[in-house]
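Batch job 17 of 40 flagged for manual review because the log was empty.
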Amino acid sequence: MYGAVKIFVKKHKVALKALAMLVVSAFFILSAVILVWVSTFKVPSTESIQQRRVAESTKIYDKTGQILLYDTGGNVRRSTVPIEQISRYIKNATIAIEDKNFYQHHGIEPLSLIRALLANITTLSWSQGGSTITQQVVKNSILTNNKDVSRKLKELVLAVKLEQIISKDEILSMYFNEIPYGGNIYGVEEASQAFFGKKSGDVTLSEAAYLAALPKAPTFYSPYGKNKTKLDERKNLVLKEMLNNNFITKEEYSSAIAEKVSFVLKGDSGIKAPHFVFYVLDYITKKYGEDALNNGGLRVITSLDYDLQSMGEKIANDYALNNKEKFNAENASIVAIDPKTGGILTMVGSRNYFDKEIDGAFNVTTAKRQPGSTIKPFVYSEAFLKGYTPETVLFDVKTQFSTNCAPNNLTMDNGCYSPDDYDGLYRGPITLRNALAQSINIPSVKVLYLAGLSDSINLARDMGLTSLSNKGDYGLTLVLGGGEVTPLEMTGAYGVFANNGIKVNISPIVEIKDRNGAVLETHEPGGTQVLDKEVTLKISSILSDNIARAPSYGQTSALYFPDRDVAVKTGTTNNYKDAWIMGYTPSIAVGAWAGNNDNTPMQKKVAGLIVAPLWRAFMDQVLPKIPNEHFEEPLVEDKSQMKLVLQGIWQGGIITSLSSGSVSVSGGVHSILNWVNKDDPGGPVPANPASDPQFERWEYGVRGWAQDHGLTNDLPVTVSTN
């Protein structure tokens, strides 16, 4: 092999020399071109850099495109201070998290660049920059914010040049006086004043760590947005890096971690619908990045109906203040969604965004809370899909559901599970229609068992309740609100009922254009049939049936609209920490919540008293503005082949004779598990019903009820079928 190579080289010696000369010449020519190109790069003066202002901010509008909700660059706030007046905590915190070798490198970090390059090659993007503080100064103050290769090369060259003409402290000064902290706040001095009400030289170690944490993604980490927990985590990371780099002692670290920092109440500053605006800002940041948000000149038309939003804000505030006095429930939220387009029409995240005492900036509509009985319609939907009907009868009797406890142990002690109805009453046989309309707990637990836990969760997730785990984390308590979901996704999921089983994409956006007027995106609602239409019509029929719910709510409750089709479901958690109400027409889905952000329990009152009046006040404003549409009636089911118990006949399961308008049945009084296989309710009668682990538990209560009512034998009973 070696000899062959020698022969090849000798034979082509002249050609190889020519090729080598060509390669060397090309290298020098390319190097010369690059050097000439680099020589054209000019570093502006520090004075000119300090004069920089955001030229093209992002503007966010309501659905009309006429009402400006927020301008990210409106009233730009920047205070320039000498580096000597900035706290050493801020300097060290920033260096620790952003550029720990700042005082050692000459503008760039080759190893960081290599790591970033490898990451970019892997992801096929330029999202990783490996930027030093010097590079960030160049990027923010001299260059544009695009991410092409040419801009990055300029950034590297100019970073080296900048370090040759000014000192490290001067670079730090430029960084701290230029860096954006979110919205219209630029520079650490302005940020310190805005967030903590003090000069940058007076901040505590923990406050400094927050200031160092923010610039990575100021909108995402905003202390006034929904990701405050993430900001806290990053602040703790900053402190950890300070400790690792010997900027602070272990004692200082522990003290700063434990320090409770309060952020100054965010002023109005021209913002309208603040919870919604921050939701939109978070959306834009995730999709287009911080640079596009702050400098891209975006024009955003949202789905927000500002008239409804204004009314919702006032109603939430007024009723929450009333609830605070009556029920110890100081906060409230409202969400309204167009079920046909998925547009968010209203988002009121608290009674008052600017109320620091209740942590008003926290957006409850995007927070996970236990939904109480508002989860029940999803479970009943799965049961209807399986073949159960609104007329199917279950027994509302005290029942022990835990297989680890004896059927006659009707307690909640030692892992036992024997829940009560909200009113402590036990109604005996009750249809699924009445059980859902009146929100009766014990039959609903039985419905979940019949429908199947996993299948019920899958359906709920398909309809939009993506916060629910699909990993078997729940038991039968799920139907009473044992999981956690957000009011926003719950309202969207109820919108599926309103839209005849079609799920559309929920979005706050109608259209986004760039600075040149080019359309970046328009909302495409899509539409996927995730639930059979007939099932949704059954649910809507039940939830709008005032006669069916009257025994629990009364004939003239806040849920009743005499001249409109409105489906409604309330929910209260067992610990009285959350009160919910979900309602819809074919044109709008509206959810409301009441409670306390810190999970303090309310007075032991049902949602119908706490949150229903608030929701009703909002609906009274909404309904005159939308079409008066009616729910379709569900199709009449063919009962000729349907089991008696599924039809609502609970006195027996065997037909012994037929006559006009009546049927004679026998078989005795039993739970439904005596007549159906829960996974195949329309199939054969179980040969051995006792093999079902719940059979004896359900039978125990039914036998007791039957005995109390003198129904103790299997003699035929004549039942009207009219």
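Reviewer: the log was empty due to a logging misconfiguration, but the result itself is present. The chain has 26 helices and 19 strands. Unflagging and moving on to job 18.
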